From TrEMBL:
<keyword id="KW-0808">Transferase</keyword>
<dbReference type="Pfam" id="PF13578">
    <property type="entry name" value="Methyltransf_24"/>
</dbReference>
<dbReference type="InterPro" id="IPR029063">
    <property type="entry name" value="SAM-dependent_MTases_sf"/>
</dbReference>
<dbReference type="InterPro" id="IPR002935">
    <property type="entry name" value="SAM_O-MeTrfase"/>
</dbReference>
<protein>
    <submittedName>
        <fullName>S-adenosyl-L-methionine-dependent methyltransferase</fullName>
    </submittedName>
</protein>
<dbReference type="GO" id="GO:0008171">
    <property type="term" value="F:O-methyltransferase activity"/>
</dbReference>
<keyword id="KW-0949">S-adenosyl-L-methionine</keyword>
<dbReference type="GO" id="GO:0032259">
    <property type="term" value="P:methylation"/>
</dbReference>
<keyword id="KW-0489">Methyltransferase</keyword>
<comment type="similarity">
    <text>Belongs to the class I-like SAM-binding methyltransferase superfamily. Cation-dependent O-methyltransferase family.</text>
</comment>
Amino acid sequence: MPPKPLRTIAASPRVVSLLDKLHQQSQAQESTLSMYAFWIGYLLKSFFLGNFWSQKNDDYMRDKFIALEREKCEFIYLLARATGARNIVEAGTSFGVSTTYLALAAGQNAQTQPGECDTKVIATEKEPTKAAKAREHWKDAGEEVEPYITLLEGDLLDTLPVELDSTGPIDLLLLDIWTPLALPTLQLVQPKLRPGAVIITDLTQVAKGLYKELLDYIYDPKNGFRTMTTPFNGGLEVTVYLPE
């Protein structure tokens, strides 16, 4: 029986080895006491003081992976392959781990679908040092991944509208970003979502209160979404855009 990653994703040994290394580095960071203390403090302050993010938090997280767990990444890869997603938006790229899975899926979909269609993974990252590291990782991944990624640096509310204007209908949106930006990002992308597009949001169970505005919006049938919280660690929201 092949190793588990090779049962889930179709990728060269080069890409599998890179992903193994990045997940190990991310897990090592996230398991430290300082990271636990940071997240507990953030959730408590948000509960009592409201949804907020400070410059101090930015400074602390500047060199942190904050990568999606491997199981979530593999699940999203399979969703992208199953839906034939070729135009994808990722809000919150960090060091580019989940982006690698998305680009791998989009590129493979492009190779198996006839006709000339756009294939683009739009990645967004505010922090320049993280954007630079992400580019290094995609370069290491090579031709299976790098050619399909367009990285937008800066405030996505400024950079994303311009890129969306030159992009076809969006097949999949990954919201892996600070909670105050989740709903504005969805509303920004929504006019470009194709019927049946999938929206993935991380940690909607553990951070349910912080996601209140987003969840209220997607729970309201008039906005055209159907959704469920899947039982991954912290909750992973899987939402489908089905406008009437």
